Amino acid sequence: MRCRNNNKGNMLLKVVSVLLLIASVFSVIWLRSSVVSIEYSLGKLENNKIAMLKERKHLAAERASLLSVERLGKATAKTYVFPDRVRVVYVKQNTSQDMRKTAASVQPGRESRSNLLGMVRN
């Protein structure tokens, strides 16, 4: 009786081990095929990246040519005219402290700004 139980246990152990072996072989094959398909996808993406970089360089060169000084000069020469030197007024920025003090102080004979605003509000 004891031999029969041992035979059934050995038989069950052999069947389970064979099934595990077969399952492990199929899982290894599945993993390798997944890795290969991912490598193909990465290759396609790398080719896309290279094509996009080439297109970006091409677009940057086209943009530079469109914004070039010569092209702008040709385009503006037809529509814009240089102003007459007699009509041009040059304005210089005066940064001296005297102007700021003069503008901030109230000069005799003139109404202060606050008085003028008060008159307007009334």
List the helices and strands and how they pair.
Layout: H1 2-66, H2 69-79, H3 97-104, H4 113-121
Explain the overall architecture:
By secondary structure, the protein is mainly alpha-helical. Helices cover 76% and strands 0% of the residues. The mean pLDDT is 78.
Alpha plus pi helix count = 4
- Stretches where pLDDT is under 50 for at least 5 consecutive residues are none
Helix content: over 70%
Mean pLDDT, rounded to whole units? 78
For the secondary structure, the number of strands is 0
Calculate Rg over CA atoms. 44 Å
Short recap of the structure:
The protein is mainly alpha-helical. It contains four helices and no strands. The mean pLDDT is 78.
Main features:
single chain; 122 residues; mainly alpha
